[in-house]
Write a structure and sequence with these properties.
The complex is a heterodimer of chains A (297) and B (336).
Chain A (H helix, E strand, L loop, with lengths): L5 E10 L2 E11 L4 E5 L6 H8 L7 E6 L8 H6 E4 L11 H11 L5 H10 L13 H14 L4 E4 L8 H18 L2 E6 L2 H4 L5 E6 L2 E7 H7 E7 L11 E7 L3 E7 L9 E5 L2 H14 L11
Parallel strand pairs in A: 3-7, 3-8, 5-6, 6-7
Antiparallel strand pairs in A: 1-2, 1-4, 8-9, 10-12, 10-13, 11-12
Helix pairs in contact in A: 3-5, 4-5, 5-6
Chain B lengths: L1 H39 L10 H13 L1 H35 L1 H5 L6 H30 L1 H7 L5 H4 L5 H20 L2 H27 L3 E3 L8 E6 L5 E5 L9 E8 L21 H9 L4 E7 L4 H29 L3
Antiparallel strand pairs in B: 1-5, 2-3, 4-5
Classes of the chains: A alpha/beta (297), B mainly alpha (336).
């Protein structure tokens, strides 16, 4: 577990003239549950597909668990992937899917798979095509975790699930992580899905990484400042304004600052993870050329 | 991976195997009748002029169920490779791409090269075995008929006998897989596979098969009593084509022209003294017989049947292998 879960440098992917991922540099330590957040079309799926070896990057370097994504059976065995909308073979039964996993994965844990299917109350002889979206997602997760990967990558696993199925799915995931200590990267366009489970966050907007870091560090370094209307440029140099909004009399700023802010004219408040992500998203929307300096640790 | 490929593929396999079993029963039932008719007409024992015995045998077969089974079996031999391409080849990859299940399959601990190799190997082996068995059954069932008609080297029968059906089927399979991979949609890939297969198999005899072995060439004297066609046009232009010469045996005649003693194509002019509306055909024929015309025939003789079969099968198998190599390359580099 010594090598980072994911290490990317200058990673880019373009489809013809369309840029899906642009100059992405990231270091995700292992043993974390990482949330990859961004609006639809931000490049989350592209980044994750590059990480599992489904897509080759156009430029840049990427290492996953110290190896090249998709470079061979050994690398594939170490990374579990649940693709967007959890594709399954509609004509095959749950038992067929598990048997497929058992035949194709050297580290396959049949007991874990059987137990999970039993816990979920699923009938192994049922065809995958007859399962609900939530059940299909659970089957996909079962396949991915029963191969006992060191890193589990999930692309929008809960996007199409109802709130109950969403909670059940994340609970299953966290139970597995707690018991087996794998690293997890999961993406969503809603930070509220991930808030309760992640300890590391990457915000990807318009094909660029806007901010990345441990959730605790992010929360302690970002603040909401309120005070009399003022020009954001007046703030000290160590304070970076992420988002500013003004009324006639009052300014509200969301800033990043590692040093404490001791300006008596400003009220300093904690912000939630959701506010933080939204601030970065709207920053990207208003000033697409500006990129936040990455959180280096 | 082998088990899984079989699991995905077994329903289609049983459908085709079931249909072929029905055909097998038909062949078994009618096969006996053909053997009996062959013995009754005394074809094997005849010496010298066998035409009467052969005609008896063939008319016996045609009036019975055997005639219909014969046509059916020939049609099946051309249809089965197309079905293989359409129902086994085209969906093999296209279906996975269409439903996104390749994302599931490629994230098990199996490289996509092995994934594709297993699929191609399993389906390819079943294809070769089924079409091989089918062709063997039809070829041996039709053995006596083919012997009597001497037709087996001619295009329609040739493609339904021996080993070429295996080549056609492997080619159709690889074609279906490739088109499915490129088009990424099952139904359009099926249609495209059928279209290309039909063109390839239809273009094969004239364009390629005829040139696989050097054709024989003969210039026998034109026998006026055995003419295939004679036509006199208003300006005195005359076209004469003789029957396939007996010296070529049961050959596949590629071209047949009538030439003058100096070696030029004979086109007339017809002598109005003998040929024309005022004279009977007899006098014109007699006049033609005095010209010393010869036939100019190129043909593939009957004993080229097996060499041509192996060469043509080889070509289709090589094309299938090249398509498979392309599929591997495409899967590794471009498929997502």
């Amino acid at each position: 577990m010594s090598s980072p879960a994911l290490h990317a440098e200058g990673l880019s992917k373009r489809y013809g003239r369309r840029v899906a991922l642009s100059d992405c540099t990231l270091a995700i330590p292992s043993g974390r549950v990482v949330g990859l957040v961004g609006p639809n079309g931000a490049g989350k799926t592209t980044l994750l597909q590059i990480a599992v070896g489904m897509l080759p990057p156009t430029a840049g370097r990427i290492e996953v668990l110290g190896g090249q994504p998709g470079s061979g059976a050994a690398q594939l065995a170490r990374v579990g992937f649940v693709a967007q909308d959890t594709p399954t073979y509609a004509g095959l039964t749950i038992a067929d899917h598990l048997r497929f996993g058992a035949h194709t994965n050297p580290g396959w844990d049949q007991r874990l798979a059987d137990e999970r299917i039993a816990t979920l109350g699923l009938d192994p002889s049922q065809k995958a095509g007859k399962l609900s979206g939530g059940q299909r997602a659970q089957l996909g997760l079962t396949l991915a975790i029963a191969k006992r990967p060191d890193l589990l990558i999930l692309d929008e696993p809960v996007a199409s699930l109802d709130p109950l199925a969403r909670r059940e799915f994340l609970r299953s995931l966290m139970t597995y992580v707690a018991e087996h200590g794998a690293s997890v990267i999961l993406s969503s366009h809603l930070v509220s899905d991930l808030e309760r489970v992640c300890d590391h966050l990457v915000v990807l907007v318009a094909s660029r990484v806007r901010v990345a870091g441990e959730v605790d560090d992010l929360l302690s370094s970002h603040h909401r400042l309120t005070g009399a209307r003022r020009d954001p440029a007046d703030l000290p140099a160590c304070v970076e304004v992420i988002e500013d909004s003004h009324t006639d009399r009052q300014s509200t700023l969301i800033v990043r600052s590692t040093a404490p802010i001791d300006d008596p004219s400003l009220t300093v408040e904690q912000i939630t993870l959701e506010d933080l992500v939204l601030a970065y998203m709207s920053q990207a929307a208003t000033a697409p050329g500006r990129t936040a300096v990455l959180e280096h640790r | 991976m082998i088990w899984f490929t079989w699991r995905q593929f077994r329903t289609q396999t049983w459908v085709i195997v079931g249909a072929l079993a029905v055909l097998g029963v038909l062949l078994a039932v009618t096969g006996r009748q053909i053997v009996d008719a062959y013995a009754a007409a005394n074809v094997a024992a005849c010496h010298g002029d066998c035409d009467a015995a052969i005609a008896n045998f063939l008319s016996e077969v045609r009036t019975g169920a055997g005639g219909r089974v014969f046509d059916l079996a020939n049609a099946v031999m051309y249809v089965v490779p197309a079905l293989v391409g359409i129902f086994w080849g085209a969906p093999l990859i296209a279906r996975e791409l269409e439903t996104g299940t390749h994302r599931l399959a490629w994230n098990q601990s199996v490289t996509r090269t092995r994934w594709l190799a297993t699929k191609l190997a399993v389906v390819g082996a079943v294809t070769a075995a089924t079409t091989g068995l089918l062709s063997w059954a039809v070829t041996s069932w039709a053995h006596h008929i083919d012997h009597a008609t001497g037709d087996r080297i001619r295009p329609l029968i040739y493609g339904a006998r021996g080993v070429v059906p295996i080549g056609y089927a492997l080619f159709a399979l690889a074609l279906g897989v490739t088109l499915g991979m490129l088009i990424r949609r099952t139904l359009p890939a099926m249609a495209a596979t059928l279209a290309v297969y039909v063109v390839a198999v239809a273009a094969m005899p004239e364009w390629i098969r005829a040139h696989l072995l050097p054709a024989r060439h003969a210039t026998p004297p034109l026998d006026v009593s055995r003419l295939h066609e004679i036509a006199i046009r208003p300006a005195g232009r005359i076209t004469i084509i003789g029957d396939d010469p007996g010296s070529a045996g049961n050959a596949w005649v590629l071209s047949n022209q009538t030439i003058t003693p100096t070696g030029h194509l004979f086109t007339g002019p017809a002598n109005p003294q003998f040929c024309g509306p005022d004279h009977g055909p007899r006098s014109c024929m007699d006049w033609v017989a005095t010209l010393g015309l010869r036939q100019d025939v190129t043909y593939q003789p009957a004993n080229h049947f097996w060499p041509l079969q192996w060469a043509e099968t080889g070509i289709f198998v090589v094309v299938a292998v090249l398509l498979a190599c392309f599929c591997f390359r495409w899967t590794r580099r471009h498929l997502t």
